[in-house]
Amino acid sequence: MNNMTPAVRILIVINIALFLFSRVMPYDMTELLGLYLPANEKYAVWQYLTGMFMHHGVMHLTLNMAGLFFFGCAVERAFGSKRFVILYILAGIGSGVIYTLVEGYEYSKGLAIVSAIEALESNVQALSGNYTYQTMTRQLSRMYRTEVVGASGALYGVIVALGMRYPNAKVSFRLLPFPIVAKYFVLGLVSIDLILQLTGFSPFGRFMVAHSAHLGGALIGMLIVLYWRYLLPKHS
């Protein structure tokens, strides 16, 4: 395997350094740097940038950094370090913006449903036995309290860029006995997130996965590559 490219190396170092730094801090850094819904009082504009550099645990960090190394080096070699960093940062920020738009809408819609149920049923005991009401309030509480962190939104932008640059390249994984053509790998990956986003099903149990952020990063990555391919002056 070729040596790690410079921008990927710097990004991995930043992510690992912030993770280690957060482990020794006397407070939870994700409460300041993780991305919250705008309805939460902890929400801040800078979180669109800082959230992509924070991770919840060793496995979360390891998976994202492995993906960044595996896919990012190829994309940096294809587009150059400057464009790679632009792609990575914009995909990460864009994924957060799309997450807050999609989940913010879902949160507002959920609040409206809960308010309507409360208006129709003023009896507290009846509300405690209302399955829809209890399910909605638990879900809204979780959405409100949960901060989104991780490089996966930016990574999805990188993966889409790789699939668009080398659509017929074959991607190999140790867990699979055969390689996958890049364009089909990207299509499958995005399709899985879209299905999980639309159905609300989570194969990861209690762990909340921001599928809308993944889809947002993929969309931004696609738009950036299309811009470079068709709209950017050839001498740029």
TrEMBL record:
InterPro entries: Peptidase_S54_rhomboid_dom, Rhomboid-like_sf, Rhomboid_protease_S54
Subcellular compartments: Membrane
Domain Peptidase S54 rhomboid: 45-227
Domain of life: Bacteria
GO CC terms in record: membrane
Source organism per UniProt: Leucothrix arctica
Protein name (record): Peptidase S54 rhomboid domain-containing protein
PANTHER family associated with the record: PRESENILIN-ASSOCIATED RHOMBOID-LIKE PROTEIN, MITOCHONDRIAL, RHOMBOID PROTEASE
Keywords: Hydrolase, Membrane, Transmembrane, Transmembrane helix
Keyword Metal-binding belongs to the record: no
Similarity remark: Belongs to the peptidase S54 family.
Topology in membrane: Multi-pass membrane protein
Residues annotated as transmembrane: 7-25, 45-72, 84-102, 143-163, 175-196, 208-228
